[in-house]
Design goal:
The chain is mainly beta and 161 residues long. It contains one helix and ten strands, in the order αββββββββββ. The chain is globular, with a radius of gyration of 22 Å.
Length: 161
């Protein structure tokens, strides 16, 4: 361990150290509980979402130690003709390995009105074992060649306490 000499400039060094810590503290204060969160979304043309059109959201994950929650997000118009949204979601790791899920979410609330924006839990207590760019690829599975009323879909990833 190295001994640091004490000098008359101790107060200057201390104030410089505190000033250099301020941006770090500010960034921690801006993130809830100092925890990481990531988001990515894609917009859909007004003409509709073709069943063959894939929407790709990419998230750069560097934290391989924390546990995360993953939520799927989206926006729909009040003219959306269904009460649910069925999605095929493929998750691809930086190394190229992938898995696929078929999911269905109700998009009406208790008053049978459409949610304009939604965020649904997808996975909880996830540890990303690889750092790098993760891809979330979305396709709709509604049985229509072109789905109208969906404005966008995405992914929201947040560190768990």
């Amino acid at each position: 361990m190295k001994n640091l000499p004490i000098s008359n400039s101790l107060s200057n060094n201390l104030s410089n150290s505190l000033l250099s810590l301020f941006p770090c503290l500010f960034l921690l204060a801006c993130s809830p509980n100092g925890l990481s969160s990531y988001a990515s979304s894609q917009q859909i043309d007004k003409e509709g979402w073709s069943q063959q059109h894939e929407l790709v959201c990419e998230v750069l994950m560097e934290d391989t130690l924390s546990l995360f929650g993953i939520e799927l997000t989206g926006r729909i118009r009040n003219t959306y003709p269904h009460h649910s949204l069925s999605l095929i979601v493929e998750v691809t790791a930086p190394s190229g390995g992938s898995f696929c899920d078929t999911l269905s979410f109700g998009v009406t609330n208790t008053r049978n009105r459409l949610w304009e924006e939604f965020r649904f839990p997808y996975c909880s207590h996830v540890c990303f074992l690889e750092s790098g760019k993760w891809q979330f690829t979305f396709r709709h599975n509604m049985g229509e060649k072109v789905l109208s009323g969906v404005m966008g879909v995405g992914v929201y990833i947040h560190a768990l306490e």
